[in-house]
Amino acid sequence: MDYDETVEPSKFMADFLRQCGGYAIVDGGLATELEQHGANLNDPLWSAKCLLSSPHLIRRVHLDYLEAGANIIISASYQATLQGFEAKGLSREEGEALLRKSVEIACEARDILYDRAAKGSGDVIGDGTILKHHPVLVAASVGSYGAYLADGSEYSGIYGDAVTLETLKDFHRRRIQVLAESGADLIAFETIPNKLEAQAYAELLKEEGIKIPVWFSFDSKDGTNVVSGDSISECALVADSCKQVVAVGINCTPPRFIHGLIQSIQKVTTKPVVIYPNSGETYDADKKEWVVSTGVADEDFVSYVGKWREAGASLIGGCCRTTPNTIRDISKALSSKSAASTALQF
């Protein structure tokens, strides 16, 4: 499903969800899987490092998620910033080419999936759905300013007084322009840690005349506010006021907080809700690693899914430390729930 500029953003997402059967599956953790395949991501560029060193691994992970049932795959551009690439000695032109490459790799994975379906091989995904009925969107990821800093501040949202609205707009401007023209179907503004950055995105979309649909996804550590302490309701209102925003939600947040956050978001917006929590583990910014002792197993994670759907979430997936197995289980759980619901209507 390629984005058509003549289609209203809200209709774009409504049409997509209808094609998917009323809900869509988002992919899972990218960096987690890249490391499983042998990538060393101990670098300020994090998963974006693989755009330089091993793009084939990124393509493989995207394809793994598609085959697990994902309807939306998110590009490896979360920590891919022009400023970060320049710090590595790359030119502005080379950095922009890598941003475009992140989307091209995801599109290639989608093409491989459809090609296999057309040839009659690998034409069944995790829940038994034939791929011809498996619409896929490619979302270009935009991580927060804190992600670029690589100091864990996307998990605190505390940037200091020196970082103003204009600072953030100047930082993100060219990156958003490039990704908007990259061939992606939408832009996913992810792990937004504070209201200020959401406002910066909203103003940039308007100032630059960005036509491509976007979603705003925040992170929370208490189930009431985003990580900076700003109210989730106030942040969702910023997203609601922006025409290009086609979904509002939460990512990289422990599963136990999601239900309440969905309810808070729905009090202030009628836009579809997207949620893709982490496994429940905690990120240690000093050690640059996830503390595994507090995580939940796949089956426990998936046990929440039905409740999230009932609460009103339309797009559901996983974030850090979730895997293709998680997404396969989410797909099966939602498919079973949908089938049971349909049966009750007859």
Question: Please, could you describe this protein's structure?
Answer:
This protein is α/β, with parallel strands linked by helices and 346 residues long. The protein has 14 helices and ten strands. The protein has helices at 9-20, 30-36, 49-53, 55-68, 82-87, 92-118, 145-149, 165-180, 195-207, 232-240, 258-266, 298-303, 305-311, 324-344, and strands at residues 24-25, 72-74, 137-142, 186-192, 214-218, 245-251, 273-276, 282-284, 289-291, 313-316. An eight-stranded parallel sheet has the order 1-10-7-6-5-4-3-2, with helices on both faces. Strand 4, helix 9 (195-207) and strand 5 (214-218) form a beta-alpha-beta unit. It starts with 8 loop residues before the first helix and ends with a helix. Residues 126-130 and 342-346 have low confidence and may be disordered.
Helix content: 40-55%
Put simply, the count of helices is 14
Strand content: 5-15%
Mean pLDDT: 88
Instruction: Please mark out the parts with pLDDT under 50 across 5 or more consecutive residues, or reply none.
Output: 126-130, 342-346
Question: Between the first and last Cα atoms, what is the distance in angstroms?
Answer: 32 Å
Radius of gyration: 18 Å
The chain-level structural class is alpha/beta
The major β-sheet equals: 8 strands, parallel
Large-scale geometry? globular
Output the helix-strand order.
HEHHHEHHEHHEHEHEHEEEHHEH
| Strand arrangement in the largest pleated sheet | 1-10-7-6-5-4-3-2
Would you report the number of β strands? 10
